[in-house]
Design a protein that fits this description.
It is built from 10 helices and 9 strands. The protein is α+β, with helices and mostly antiparallel strands. α4 packs parallel to α8. Bound molecules: zinc ion. The site of zinc ion has 6 residues, from loops. GO terms for molecular function: aldehyde-lyase activity; metal ion binding.
Length: about 260
């Protein structure tokens, strides 16, 4: 069967970015087993032929109504699929979905009937909000960056912008490339409505938010840029650990300079 990516270089490029990012997440140890999920709004690459494609799944309910997603299309990582597999075979470990006109249900249209991530309702709620705001952001990435998660096991870092200020102070690029810092969301059960609502609220102020003792949720123009923000923040956390291992308290050193 012909892939939806064939002869569509724009769409193929976006999906390939997801595959490249998925490989990085695995290499960094941030994507154990089927951990993490990525969704990208690909509506701008959809042509008339794609709009006419017959569904390859039954109609599935999103579980909520998202009025700004009418006529939208998304590439979504598949549920129970591994990032390391998606890196090599993005259309076997993810699929393209069409949001139906009721804005409350969807169908899979390509390439295979791979069911989207179980976090689809929260990802789509975030995309709905981004469109409502006129945001240029098209991608959302959830992953488990080791050192940033470890920080949330320390109560001292959970206060508003405590972690942001610490991470910014480690290397100047962090402030330059993640000017909004890291939002913190107190622990909630994965996939819960409460977590989705808290995430949408926190993303009003931040591009990257941390789910306490779980992982980050980042948004940006594409999957690569969302990954970059997480990578830059986690690099700062690594520098903090390295500095602490060398001697004293790194933030004390900064204050006494
Ligand atoms: Zn997770």
């Amino acid at each position: 069967m012909k892939s939806i990516l064939e002869n569509r270089p724009g769409l193929a490029k976006e999906v390939n970015k997801v595959a490249e990012v998925a490989g990085y997440l695995w290499q960094k140890g941030w994507a154990e087993r089927n951990g993490g999920n990525i969704t990208v709004n690909i509506t701008e690459f959809v042509d008339e032929e794609i709009r006419q494609l017959a569904p390859i799944s039954e109609v599935k309910s999103i579980g909520t109504t998202l009025p700004h997603l009418k006529g939208c299309y998304f590439y979504c990582k598949g549920t129970n699929k591994r990032m390391r597999d998606l890196a090599r075979w993005p259309m076997e470990n993810g699929s393209v979905i069409r949001i139906l006109d009721d804005c409350a249900s969807y169908v899979i249209i390509a390439d295979q009937p791979v069911a989207p991530t179980s976090e689809l309702p929260s990802h789509l709620s975030v995309h709905n909000n981004l469109i409502a705001k006129g945001s240029p952001y098209k991608a959302s990435v959830h992953t488990h960056p080791i050192e940033l998660i470890a920080m949330t096991h320390c109560k001292a870092f959970l206060g508003k912008d405590v972690a942001s200020n610490l991470l910014w102070s480690m290397i100047p690029e962090t402030k330059a490339f993640c000017p909004l810092g890291l939002g913190i969301i107190p622990y909630e059960l994965p996939s819960s409505v409460k977590l989705a609502e808290a995430t949408i609220k926190e993303l009003e102020e931040y591009d990257v938010v941390m789910w306490e003792k779980h992982g980050v949720f980042a948004i940006d123009c594409d999957a690569m840029q969302a990954f970059d923000q997480i990578d830059v923040l986690n690099k700062s956390a690594l520098i903090y650990i390295a500095a602490k291992n060398m001697a004293s308290n790194p933030t004390e050193c900064l204050r006494n300079r």
